[in-house]
Automatic annotation (TrEMBL):
This is 1-aminocyclopropane-1-carboxylate deaminase/D-cysteine desulfhydrase. Gene3D superfamilies: 3.40.50.1100. Pfam families: PALP. Keywords: Pyridoxal phosphate. Belongs to the ACC deaminase/D-cysteine desulfhydrase family. InterPro entries: ACCD_DCysDesulf, TrpB-like_PALP, TrpB-like_PALP_sf. Signal peptide: none annotated. Transmembrane segments: none annotated. Its cofactor is pyridoxal 5'-phosphate. The keyword Electron transport does not apply. The keyword Ribosomal protein does not apply. Residues 16-297 form the Tryptophan synthase beta chain-like PALP domain. It comes from Nostoc flagelliforme FACHB-838.
Length: 315
């Protein structure tokens, strides 16, 4: 299953900010593993697809908003690995389809729309039963791939970096953008002593995620094993909330891409990279620290985002 994917390259970033802070900073380019099934979404799907295959399911069903990276990745991964896919989309159908959803359809995904109220019930047995009755035997993956299979896949993200960099190379801080915190949980579970994970929630009031992370960690570990406390949340870099941007973030993102050749998505990675650069300038890290920034992909979403921004003539 992994043969289709390129090992993610590690790219060093040298800038005035990193030099002044005296740190080594590397980006783990999960965005370059595959043209479509990229980023953390592949890691969250991997063990879900393996379980579906093992249990002889031929159809995957999952949930997402109209610009969802997870919908995009599930459609492409389903197509690659021979599953039918059904995408349950939040809200009303809008035609013409946006670039994310038209890609999903091209990959063979069947789209179904649920109004917001019904969509909110997506994790309840009642709604899942309704979907099973309507579509037959389907393997249901939660929105964002956010289950323990997803956590398991994400335990492999940093070990991939270690392979690329050679085992001797140990990073002190692993930084990642955070939506549901599934990715952060997997990373925290995979770290060695002395390493820390720093998560940057892209939602407003992200502090509530601490409880979700605890739940992921304790449910993942065999009962009795203590959950690692090697992670922290940086809640001040959400820029107003999910998929909200301002000119400062857009400018930062464009300049970073120009200077370092690393494209960033506006919903997730731009906010995390901005946060890390800001913390570096504030002296948050120590001289000699080695930082790994996980580029979780999501670049497909920029197409839709840029279209929307242009409509408001922001960029
Ligand atoms: C989904 C996504 C995230 C958030 O992952 P979680 O596991 O939900 O925290 C981060 N970055 C990108 C690009 C994503 O698509």
């Amino acid at each position: 299953m992994s043969l289709i994917f390129l090992p993610p390259p590690l790219q060093q970033i040298n800038s005035e900010i990193t030099r002044n802070a005296g740190v080594d900073l590397y980006v783990l380019r999960l965005d370059l593993m595959h043209p479509w099934v990229n980023g953390n979404k592949w890691f969250k799907l991997k063990y879900n697809l393996l379980e579906a295959k093992e249990k002889d399911f031929t159809t995957l069903l999952t949930f997402g908003g109209g610009y969802s990276n997870h919908i995009y990745a599930t459609a492409a991964a389903g197509n690659l690995f021979g599953f039918r896919t059904i995408g349950v989309i939040r809200g009303e159908e809008r035609l013409p389809l946006n670039p994310t959803l038209s890609f999903a359809v091209q990959q063979g995904m069947q789209l179904v729309y649920l109004n917001r109220e019904m969509y909110r019930q997506r994790n309840t047995p009642a709604l899942q039963e309704y979907l099973q009755q309507r579509f037959g035997e389907v393997f249901i993956i939660p929105e964002g791939g956010s289950n323990l299979n997803g956590v398991r896949g994400c335990t492999e993200i940093v070990s991939n970096a270690m392979l690329t960099a050679g085992y001797a190379y140990a990073f002190d801080h692993i930084c990642v953008a955070c939506g549901t915190a599934t990715t952060l949980a997997g990373i925290a579970l995979s770290l060695h002593e002395g390493q820390r994970a720093i998560a940057f929630p892209v939602l407003k009031n992200g502090a509530f995620l601490a409880q979700e992370i605890e739940t992921f960690l304790t449910n993942y570990l065999a009962s009795g094993s203590p959950a690692p406390s090697n992670w922290e949340l940086m809640c001040d870099y959400h820029f107003g909330g999910y998929a909200k941007v301002n000119d400062e973030l857009l400018l930062f993102s464009q300049q970073f891409t120009q200077q370092h050749g690393v494209p960033l998505d506006y919903v997730y990675t731009a906010k995390m990279f901005y946060g890390v650069m800001d913390l570096l300038q504030q002296g948050f890290f120590c001289k000699g620290d080695r930082l790994l920034l996980v580029h979780t992909g999501g670049l497909q979403g920029n197409v839709g985002m840029e279209e929307r921004l242009q409509r408001f003539s922001k960029i």
